[in-house]
Automatic annotation (TrEMBL):
<dbReference type="InterPro" id="IPR004045">
    <property type="entry name" value="Glutathione_S-Trfase_N"/>
</dbReference>
<dbReference type="InterPro" id="IPR054416">
    <property type="entry name" value="GST_UstS-like_C"/>
</dbReference>
<dbReference type="InterPro" id="IPR036249">
    <property type="entry name" value="Thioredoxin-like_sf"/>
</dbReference>
<protein>
    <submittedName>
        <fullName>Beta-etherase</fullName>
    </submittedName>
</protein>
<dbReference type="Pfam" id="PF22041">
    <property type="entry name" value="GST_C_7"/>
</dbReference>
<dbReference type="Pfam" id="PF13409">
    <property type="entry name" value="GST_N_2"/>
</dbReference>
<feature type="domain" description="GST N-terminal">
    <location>
        <begin position="11"/>
        <end position="99"/>
    </location>
</feature>
<dbReference type="InterPro" id="IPR036282">
    <property type="entry name" value="Glutathione-S-Trfase_C_sf"/>
</dbReference>
Amino acid sequence: MVATIQLYDLELLGLPKTVFSCNTLKTRIALNLKGLPFETKWLDFATVKEVIPTLTKQNPELKRPTVPVIVDSISGQDKVIQDSYDIAVYLEKQYPNTPSLFHNNPGVHRFFQQYCESVLLLPLFKLVMFIIHKQCGPDVLQDWWREDRERMFGCSLDVFAGNRDDNILAVKNALLPIIKVLKEFPFMTGEQVGWADVVLAADFKMMAALDPVTFESVFLSGFETPADDVLIQNWWKRMSVYI
């Protein structure tokens, strides 16, 4: 199949072409799961602000330029879709003969995404935030990133990051219900891989890409029993084929 889809992804200039953003990872994994070929267009934190508004035709002063964005030219006319969930919905409708992301139950998958974003992602981000800051690019880009995030958070990065041990504990607690699901099913919503697994795998890959040591010790081991460790390790192996 010829690639008709372009995926605009985010890279850190200090770690070129390292796939690290959990947001763009959702789209990348979804495309791989569906078996849809695509071409990656790499942007950094500076060029995102320049390129994305030209694609979405949105005023960057009114809507923050973000990735992922895909451009699909399958119909002979470019379709531009932004936001990982909106992209997933589009792919599900546009390519119905590929493996399903939602299995006719999008509400359950959307709920799980909300769970990950509200419970797991925040402590995860706090664990890798300074790595992103350091690797995002030259000093001028690092200064912009810090100022932009501190304005967004309403406090300094150091205050926002909090205590590392507290963040690790929060991640561990967020993963406990997931391990309980894996005791009964191979995937988050049952016997078939779906969007819920895509969301969780994107968070896992973000941590693995930026801090592999912490990823191994916090996300893949050190749970209540060795059997729990094996459950989540095996799920990660099943998902790794799509990453």
